[in-house]
Design a protein that fits this description.
The complex is a heterodimer of chains A (295) and B (287).
Chain A: E1 2-6, H1 12-21, E2 25-29, H2 37-41, E3 45-46, H3 50-55, E4 59-62, H4 67-75, E5 89-92, H5 98-109, E6 114-117, E7 120-121, H6 123-129, E8 132-137, H7 140-151, E9 154-161, H8 165-193, H9 198-207, H10 213-223, H11 233-249, H12 255-267, H13 280-287
Parallel strand pairs in A: 1-2, 1-4, 2-3, 4-5, 5-6, 8-9
Antiparallel strand pairs in A: 7-8
Helix pairs in contact in A: 1-6, 4-5, 8-10, 8-11, 8-12, 8-13, 9-10, 11-12, 12-13
Chain B: H1 7-16, E1 22-23, H2 32-36, E2 40-41, H3 45-49, E3 54-57, H4 62-70, H5 75-78, E4 84-87, H6 93-104, E5 109-112, E6 115-116, H7 118-124, E7 127-132, H8 135-148, E8 149-156, H9 160-188, H10 193-201, H11 208-219, H12 228-245, H13 250-267, H14 276-282
Parallel strand pairs in B: 1-2, 3-4, 4-5, 7-8
Antiparallel strand pairs in B: 6-7
Classes of the chains: A alpha/beta (295), B mainly alpha (287).
Chain lengths: 295, 287
């Protein structure tokens, strides 16, 4: 099948490579032209605009950062909508607000173009290994049709519901993550303030009922004070805004997420920009006078 | 532009001050009381703006202001170079600065001038007005502000008025939540919240919010006032601004969630003092 891929960043590039490995003919576009190089080296064809790319593909993936970026590459000038034929399927793997997804899907539907929202979880590693979890919103029959293609990039594919449902699932995922990060940071500062080293506490906790992937990965980074990028805190901050916006629109109280988002806000008030989300520890430490707090 | 609960009495006060007024409201019937009082009703914002030296906007949210100024047949199409757009809505300071810059590109001045004091203040012409913009433009507009308000303060450059209003909303919302929590504690302990309020009013915990919103909570009087859904919107502006500027505002963030819950319960049209209901439910009290 001829597949288009728009957006070749840290996530998009390995996902596109896995589609080539899956035996598909690939056509790519990225804002920065040099980003297409690794893909064209692997046999993909580069297209001058998203519209021209969409004109020759049955399925078009998008993997960009923000809602505005999705609107730009899909509906903006030379966007996918100006090339896609009726029956083409746009699969947006970006993490954006459900309301934006629904709006874009509706505009595409007027031209007979299908859209699935298919945000992913599993990070850069999952993208490279093709083991992403993919949460899909859109028509069930469209999902069925493209499932073999999605299998090239992800291992766990779940059709959550209609358009926007994938983004709601991803927002729920991010909500649980940012609250967990805050919890881990608090547990660590709490242990230290009570005169207990965190590493043995962490070892005990990971084996017990509080064990989680987040505790394993982020907990370790906190212990080792690896605060430069791994999991880009900027993305968690962006996602926290999606969560809060969605909570506002759906009139839901999410007090834990709202509080955790404040720590992310505060993190970006500190010097330095490329923070890993483990750096939330610094914000929580400083509140209680660490480092350098007397006994 | 914008003749709702606030805009209508403010516009009437401008007429009373002896000014010639052209008005535009999305709902045509909102213009009637102004027409009867001598204003000219117009078919669009652009038309209402033509020939005016000062143009006031009083609408609900950031996209509404963007629409009425820069949308089709908007203020920007009708406004003359050298005229002043005065936005009295409560909206995002960041968006305000960018709109002021866009208008400046067309030779049009802008002031952000959000108000505090509610419908009563708008009717009586006693609003507090917090202004952002150039001092010389402020001086020019001041006589017009004096038709609508009493406490008129130039806070700083464009956007500074909206920052002050956001501060006002933070302090007000946190105070409201604290009053609601205190009175909930009293109720849950079987103690008369009215008597607790009376006692507290004489001491260090006195506040305007305890007086006014405290009474509403004690007497279950949630007729607005300031609607919960607007308070919810204002706190969204606060939390979004906090995220844009890298500020941690834990209290505001929590209260925003309680207002989400209150509106979700179907109480968006009630006074925001009804946020006490969310706390009462949280503690298993019957409403």
């Amino acid at each position: 099948m001829k597949i288009g891929f728009v957006g070749l960043g840290a996530m998009g590039r390995p996902m596109a490579q896995n589609l080539i490995r899956g035996g598909h003919e690939l056509c790519v576009w990225a804002r920065r032209a040099q980003a297409t190089k690794p893909l064209t080296d692997a046999g993909a064809q580069a297209s001058p605009t998203p519209a021209l790319l969409a004109a020759q593909c049955q399925v078009v993936f998008t993997m960009v950062t923000k809602g505005e970026d999705v609107e730009q590459v899909v509906l903006g000038s030379d966007g996918i909508i100006y090339g896609a034929k009726a029956g083409t399927v746009v699969i947006d793997c970006s993490t954006i607000a459900p309301a934006t997804t629904r709006r874009v899907a509706q505009v595409l539907a007027e031209k007979g173009v299908e859209m699935l929202d298919a945000p992913v979880s599993g990070g850069e590693q999952g993208a490279i290994e093709g083991t992403l979890s993919i949460m899909v919103g859109g028509k069930a029959e469209v999902f069925e049709r493209v499932q073999p293609v999605l299998r090239c990039v992800g291992r766990t594919l779940v059709h959550i519901g209609e358009s926007g449902a994938g983004q709601v699932a991803k927002a729920a995922n991010q909500l649980a993550l940012i609250v967990a990060i805050q919890g881990i940071a608090e547990a660590m500062v709490f242990a230290r303030a009570n005169g207990v080293e965190f590493r043995p506490v962490w070892e005990a906790l990971t084996k017990g009922f509080a064990g989680s992937r987040m505790l394993e990965v982020v907990g370790q980074r906190m212990i080792e004070r690896q605060f430069v990028m791994g999991i880009d805190a900027n993305l968690h901050l962006k996602d926290s805004l999606i969560v809060l916006q969605c909570a506002h629109e759906s009139r839901t109280a999410v007090p834990g997420a709202a509080l955790a988002a404040q720590a992310f806000n505060a993190l970006f008030a500190r010097p330095g920009t490329r923070w890993d989300s483990a750096a939330i520890l610094k914000v929580v430490e400083e509140m209680s006078g660490f480092p350098g707090r007397g006994s | 532009m914008g003749l709702g609960i606030m805009g209508q009495p403010m516009a009437l006060n401008l007429l009373k001050g002896g000014h010639t007024l052209r008005v535009y409201g999305r709902r045509a019937e909102s213009m009637l009381p102004l027409e009867h009082a001598g204003a000219t009703a117009c078919a669009s914002a652009a038309e209402a703006t033509r020939g005016c030296e000062a143009i006031f906007t009083m609408v609900a949210d950031t996209p509404d202001v963007e629409q009425v100024i820069f949308g089709p047949s908007g203020v920007a199409e009708g406004a003359a170079r050298g005229s002043v757009v005065v936005d009295m809505s409560t909206i995002s300071p960041v968006a305000t600065r960018s709109m002021a810059a866009r208008l400046a590109g067309r030779g049009i001045e802008m002031l952000d001038a959000p108000v505090s004091g509610g419908e009563v203040g708008a009717v009586n012409g006693t609003l507090s007005i917090m202004v952002g913009g150039k001092p010389e433009v402020f001086d020019q507009a001041k006589p017009l502000f004096e038709c609508m308000g009493k406490n008129i303060v130039l806070i700083g450059a464009n956007g500074a008025g909206q920052v002050a209003k956001a501060c006002n909303q933070i302090v007000g919302a946190v105070a409201l939540e604290s009053v609601a929590e205190g009175l909930t504690l009293a109720r849950k302990n079987g103690v008369d919240p009215g008597k607790v309020r009376d006692a507290l009013l004489g001491g260090f915990a006195w506040s305007r919010v305890l007086e006014i919103h405290g009474r509403r909570i004690v007497e279950r009087d949630f007729k607005p006032g300031f609607k919960a859904k607007l308070h919810q919107k204002d706190l969204r502006i606060v939390t979004e601004t906090a995220a844009q500027l890298g500020i941690g505002l834990p209290q505001s963030a929590l209260i925003a969630q309680h207002l989400n819950a209150l509106v979700g319960m179907g109480c968006g049209e009630e006074d925001s003092a009804a946020v006490a209901k969310v706390l009462e439910i949280l503690s298993g009290l019957k409403l």
